[in-house]
Specification:
This protein is of the alpha+beta class and 479 residues long. 19% of the residues lie in helices and 44% in strands. The protein has a ten-stranded antiparallel barrel. Helix 1 packs across helix 3.
């Protein structure tokens, strides 16, 4: 919600401020449309490369889409380019089928929507899409150069008639089909895209310097980041699934005792919340888990021992934890993909609460409190898919048992690993699947008041351990 409010203010400012009062970028370039086999992404990549080679700054993606939504107009409109503080709007549409395609590019002035140039180029096969895009991008760059000089282009390769400032261009369509290429157009598409660089009149330095243009681009990239679900300020997931494996053990000198047990799969519920300061990468998060359990205790009757009551005590595992972290972006692979690493410090608490079994306690209640840290590696494959992998290690600073004890001064460690995958159906709602494994080990001193079975060694200086493996899936929201 806050992101949309800020975007609304940004859009309004873009419409109200005069051109001289705001930093301006060169070209707004929305997504390429047309049949997927024609290579929409490859064409767009080529267009951007052609514009970048000429030193022009390009605004794409979320900034334009969000501005269009706020204004209630199509993303490929001059109003959106104006709101994004761009001087020109470049639109590319693909058509055709069965390996024969046509790319049509239209360049407009954002200030009045007038057409500066139209380019139509035919190509065969998806492999030619990137090269075709480079040609269109290079020709857009030359058209911008000529438009800024207030004269038609004298480049023989650009047959478009360019309009002087303030007037609508007369833009005959140029058909560069392979079948009609003469000696001039038999030059490679790459050589066309590598046309001579623009003169200083359209360089970044002539329009305020590289530093200013870079700053505008960086601000837009940061704003684009905050509109992606993975980079929003708050994320909350509610999941259900199973604790597929859990065990408890008491060992003395490495020898197991009759108090050891493992459980059948249990119903598991979980919640996960993350608060992030997107500009700084700082985050705070919390986890909560709940698993009900019903024990079935079977021991050999002993006339010297009081009976169990009940023999099927109920209980529940409860887990809670929290982390503070600082995310570092290691690499970016595109507008909405990249790799980030987050060092973590945090706390972990887990407890098993069990119904009292009378004078003879077999299944004991226990709890651990650990302090530690870890690292998370986050991979965003695209705007919709993200994967988190993390590992944690902590020192167990507190260990409690009731109603009986196994020893005193419990100290030990906790190890945890986790993987989460998210698929975002929209910017608000997604699906999350997670797996987690945890191991706790506590060394005790002396002996407690826990009863030993006849075949067990004396329970002195024992080790208490527990393991669990959880599998959860559910819904995740981002705000």
């Amino acid at each position: 919600m806050l992101g949309r409010i800020f975007l609304s203010l940004f859009v309004c400012a873009g419409l109200l401020l005069p051109g001289s009062a705001r930093a301006q970028s060169d070209v707004a370039f929305p997504l390429v449309t047309g049949p997927k086999p024609a290579g929409r992404g490859a064409t767009a990549k080529g267009v951007v490369a052609g514009l970048d080679k000429a030193g022009l700054t390009v605004v794409r993606g979320d900034i334009l889409e969000e501005a269009a939504e706020e204004l209630g107009v199509a993303v490929a409109s001059a109003e959106v380019a104006m709101a994004a503080a761009c001087e020109y709007l470049a639109v590319v549409r693909l058509s055709g089928r069965r390996g024969r395609y046509t790319a049509k590019g239209t360049l407009r002035r954002a200030s009045d929507g007038s057409v500066v140039a139209e380019i139509k180029r035919k190509y065969k096969g998806k492999k030619k899409a990137t090269a075709t895009g480079r040609v269109i991008g290079a020709r857009f760059a030359r058209a911008i150069e000529a438009d800024r000089r207030g004269r038609p282009s004298d480049d023989a390769d650009v047959a478009e008639v360019l309009a002087p400032p303030g007037a609508r261009a007369i833009s005959p369509t140029v058909d560069d089909s392979d079948s009609s290429m003469g000696m001039r157009d038999r030059r490679s598409e790459d050589s066309l895209a590598a046309a001579s660089p623009p003169p200083p009149s359209i360089s970044n330095s002539a329009r305020g310097g590289d530093r200013g243009a870079t700053a505008v681009t960086e601000r837009r990239e940061r704003k684009s980041d905050t509109t992606r679900p993975e980079r929003k300020a708050f994320r909350f997931a509610l999941s259900g699934g199973s604790r597929t494996f859990s065990s408890y053990s008491i060992t003395v000198g490495g020898q197991p005792t009759s108090h050891n047990y493992s459980l059948e799969p249990l119903l598991a519920l979980g919640a996960h919340a993350v608060f992030t300061l997107p500009d700084l990468g700082l985050l705070a998060e919390g986890d909560f888990g709940f698993m009900p359990v019903q024990f079935q205790i079977a021991v050999v009757d002993d006339p010297n021992r009081p009976p169990l009551d009940p023999t099927d005590p109920g209980g529940q595992f409860i887990g809670a934890g929290g982390n503070l972290g600082w995310r570092f972006d290691v690499a970016r692979f595109g507008e909405a993909s990249g790799l980030a690493v987050t060092p973590l410090v945090g706390v972990d608490y887990e407890t098993l609460l069990v119904t009292d079994q009378g004078e003879q306690t077999v299944v004991n209640s226990w709890s651990t409190f650990a302090l530690g840290g870890g690292v998370r590696v986050a991979l965003e494959l695209n705007r919709n898919i993200a994967i988190d992998l993390e590992g944690e290690f902590g020192a167990i600073l507190g260990f409690d048992e009731s109603p009986v004890t196994t020893g005193e001064n419990g100290q030990g460690f906790r190890v945890g690993t986790r993987a989460r995958g998210r698929y975002w159906i929209s910017d608000l709602l997604g699906i999350e699947i997670g797996v987690a494994y945890s191991l706790r080990s506590v060394d005790l001193e002396g002996s407690g008041n826990r009863s030993a079975f006849s075949d067990d060694p004396a329970i002195v200086d024992a080790n208490v351990g527990s393991e669990a493996f959880d599998l959860l899936a559910g819904a995740v929201l981002a705000f």
